[in-house]
Design brief:
The structure holds 2 protein chains of 2 kinds. The termini of chain A are far apart. Chain A is built from 6 helices and 9 strands, in the order H-H-H-H-H-H-E-E-E-E-E-E-E-E-E. Chain A is 26% helix and 23% strand. Chain A is of the alpha+beta class. The N terminus of chain A is likely disordered. By secondary structure, chain B is mainly alpha-helical. In chain B, helix 2 packs across helix 3, helix 7 packs across helix 9 and helix 8 packs across helix 9. Chain B is globular. Classes of the chains: A alpha+beta, B mainly alpha.
Chain lengths: 239, 200
């Protein structure tokens, strides 16, 4: 955006309109152009037309089916993190800043879900407690026939399942977290999750954990189950 | 397998438009969000894959994009186009954000055609045939542009490069790059979105 474009006069307008529509202006230039737009109907009209055109470009890319594991991860992330109605309005003002270049870091962590491998036999878990920062307790867990690791971090009555280096859930399945109390069938938490492309995930386990002896993870059909339909692939003993 | 209440809700929500589903999503309805995902995830993944050139990175970009829509309750502005265009805009921003995080950009323009499954020829969802026809029209229009205009548009849109970066890549003055973008978009606009009375 050159300085002439800030002037009310329309002569010389338009030099940056296409680059702006393509998202190709440098940040400072884009801000200057946005200020210019406020007072320039000509550029605003041209931009609207260009944006309709650029909106049509994306589908011209070769089309692929979304990997099934990706759906499971996204759905798992959403189910794991229910959003209160009205939260949108509170966050509206910062929404687009979050997706602006450099702002995505705030979202990087959320996408993580968790992962474990599905297998027939459950490895016996040997709990190993260790102190964590701020008085947190970290419980090591083993997993079933899979690379990677799993542990549970307990702090202030809350639990977080931390998984690294795990494979995606099998096609059409998603991981579900269960709370096991002595003498009772595992209770569903409705926390469904998967892993990132790198096999990592951090996921909150809903409280209360009173009386819970184990946190279990199983593979379940997409959408989750009310009772486990597969063997546990992670068992984290809490007591 | 969805739980019974979710199955019932899903059946009902399936009748809603994208715009209505976005409203439900902003209200915190995960089933509505899943339907939005199902309707637009293929296009989102395809765009991310086209931009990133690596399947794993594309998957992360799409995951981040959809979860950010869910988490932040971004407001869809219908004056700006369809929900699909809006979703793809979020994906594109995420991909560019990823480029900025990564120091190396090499390889992202190279598609591994064997790594992803092409969408079958039969329409997967309502409107897919029409969308494929639109995509064919856009590809034809892009191909019809002079190569110097097409290159700068593709580098900017799919590559996420700024005009300054493109100028450096092509060893051109920045003004020339902007000029080519403008000429190219004007031609595309005429071809794809002609004013009334002008045959496309």
């Amino acid at each position: 955006m050159n300085s002439e474009n800030h002037l009310p006069a329309h002569e010389g307008c338009g030099a940056d309109t296409a680059a702006y529509a393509l998202g190709a202006l440098e940040p400072a230039e884009a801000e200057a152009f946005e200020r210019h737009l406020e007072g320039c109907v000509i550029c605003a009209e041209e931009l609207a037309g260009f944006q309709r055109t650029t909106d049509m470009l994306a589908p011209s890319a070769p089309q692929y089916a979304v990997p099934s594991g990706l759906r499971a991860r996204v759905v798992g992330g959403v189910r794991a993190e229910p959003r209160r109605s009205g939260a949108a309005d509170k966050r509206r003002g910062r929404a687009w800043r979050l997706i602006a270049p450099g702002g995505g870091r705030a979202l990087a962590a959320l996408a993580t879900a968790v992962a474990v491998a599905l297998a027939a036999a459950v490895i016996v878990i040997r709990p190993r407690l260790s102190g964590g920062p701020g008085g947190a307790r970290v419980i090591s867990a083993s997993v079933v026939d899979s690379a990677g690791s799993a542990r549970v971090r307990l702090s202030g009555g809350r639990a977080e399942l931390i998984i690294r280096g795990f494979p995606q859930p099998p096609a059409g399945l998603i991981y579900e977290v269960w709370l096991k109390r002595p003498g009772r069938v595992p209770a569903p938490t409705r926390v469904l999750f998967s892993v990132t492309g790198h096999g990592a995930g951090d996921i909150g386990v809903p409280a209360p954990l009173n009386g819970v002896s184990k946190i279990l993870v199983t593979s379940e059909p997409d959408g989750g189950s009310d009772v486990p339909t597969h063997p546990a692939v992670i068992v984290a003993p809490l007591s | 397998m969805l739980r019974a209440p979710d199955r019932i809700r899903r059946r009902g929500l399936r009748l809603l438009s994208d715009h209505e589903l976005i409203g439900q999503t902003r209200a915190g309805d995960p089933v509505a969000f899943e339907l939005i995902f199902d309707r637009h995830a293929d296009a989102a993944f395809s765009l991310a894959y086209r931009m990133c050139g690596r399947r794993a990175v594309a998957e992360d970009v799409v995951q981040e994009a959809f979860l950010s829509i869910w988490r932040t309750g971004m407001r869809y502005d219908d004056a700006r186009g369809s929900v699909r265009a809006w979703v793809l805009g979020v994906v594109r921003h995420k991909a560019i954000d990823t480029f900025h995080r990564e120091t190396a950009k090499t390889g992202r323009d190279v598609l591994d055609e064997t790594a992803a499954e092409r969408i079958p020829a039969s329409g997967r969802i309502e409107g897919e045939v029409e969308r494929r026809e639109d995509a064919r029209r856009v590809r034809a229009a892009l191909t019809g542009l002079p190569s110097e205009q097409r290159h700068v548009i593709e580098l900017a849109y799919f590559g996420g490069f700024t005009h300054s970066q493109i100028a450096g890549l092509l060893e051109l003055p920045a003004g020339t790059v902007k000029g080519r973008m403008r000429l190219g978009l004007k031609k595309l606009r005429l071809l794809l979105d002609p004013p009334s009375g002008v045959a496309s």
